[in-house]
Write a structure and sequence with these properties.
single chain; Arc Repressor Mutant, subunit A; D-Maltodextrin-Binding Protein, domain 2; six-stranded mixed sheet
């Protein structure tokens, strides 16, 4: 068993294709097939279902451990470089899209200034998508909405954000600075999809206020939901970070007086040691949040 075999297995599992795995590893498909076959022969089990190109049950077990091993290989290189006063390595970060929109530009600029040899891979996705990838080792850390119901993870709160109403400039509520849930219940709304944490909490708050929200459309994807509101397709309840201060247009932000804030946090796995590069990235993220949140409407530092 060697490192190349484990990397080949992970690549096939991630890409669901031997050819795509080979491309990601900058090699040829025959090499990937050989590495996987030798690993299977050594372990005496089938790791990849050749009909579907998906990991078998045994393959998933091996892949989970292989990811930890791969992480440790990266940590070795990063930590040895740090002994030479060089912070280097690759860090994979997940980030909810509403936060990524305003956080990533400043983060990349500051990271390049302070740690030019740290390479980051950023995945823009929802919390429900990021959490399993973080647990499984595909990501090193993730900025997510809380609460996160995963004992394998720990999190540090970054900021709180209000949930606001974004309305077209010609909407009946556009001239209001503040509304209540009973006010917005009188209008059709663009809402997050049922089953998402954001929607569950919104419906619970509306029920507590004695209101029932009327969906004009239900959208699974906060950035698409925000884009529709900005384009005038209707009023939408959004996290404040979905309408950052850098954006302007024929729409208005309206505060919802009886809807509380939500917390955005940096989540990481409890198990294992973080690399020097990961610590540098986490530190840089925290610095940028502290610098930029005060200038974002509806966001509050923790």
């Amino acid at each position: 068993m060697d490192h190349r075999q484990l990397r080949a297995l992970l690549a096939v599992g991630d890409h669901r294709s031997f050819s795509a795995a080979a491309k990601s590893l900058s090699t040829v498909q025959s090499n990937v097939s050989t590495h996987v076959a030798r690993l299977e022969a050594e372990l005496g089990v089938t790791l990849i279902d050749r009909a579907t190109t998906e990991l078998t049950a045994e393959g998933r077990v091996v892949a989970e451990r292989a990811r930890r091993i791969e992480h440790e290989f990266q940590a070795l290189a990063s930590d040895v470089a740090a002994l030479k006063d060089v912070v280097a390595g690759e860090v994979r970060i997940g980030m909810i899209g509403t936060t990524a929109r305003w956080l990533v530009p400043g983060f990349l600029t500051r990271l390049k200034e302070r740690f030019p040899q740290v390479h980051v891979v950023i995945l823009d996705a929802t919390t429900s998508s990021l959490v399993p990838q973080l647990i499984g080792g595909q990501l090193d850390m993730a900025i997510v909405n809380t609460p996160v119901d995963a004992p394998e993870l720990s999190s540090v709160a970054l900021f709180d954000e209000e949930r606001i109403l974004v309305v077209p400039a010609d909407h009946q509520l556009a001239d209001r600075s503040e509304v209540g849930l009973n006010d917005i219940a009188e209008h059709e709304l663009l809402l997050a999809a049922k089953g998402t944490t954001f929607r569950i909490e919104l419906d619970e708050a509306a029920a507590a206020a004695g209101a029932t929200l009327m969906p004009k459309a239900e959208i699974d994807g906060m950035r698409l939901l925000a884009s529709l509101a900005f384009l005038g397709y209707g009023a939408a309840v959004l996290p404040a970070s979905a309408a950052p201060g850098t954006l302007a247009g024929p729409w208005r932000r309206v505060r919802i007086s009886d809807l509380g804030t939500r917390t955005v946090a940096l989540a990481r796995r409890r198990r294992g040691l973080s690399t020097v590069a990961e610590r540098a990235v986490a530190e840089t993220l925290q610095e940028v949040v502290e610098a930029e949140v005060p200038g974002q409407p509806g966001l509050l530092l923790r």
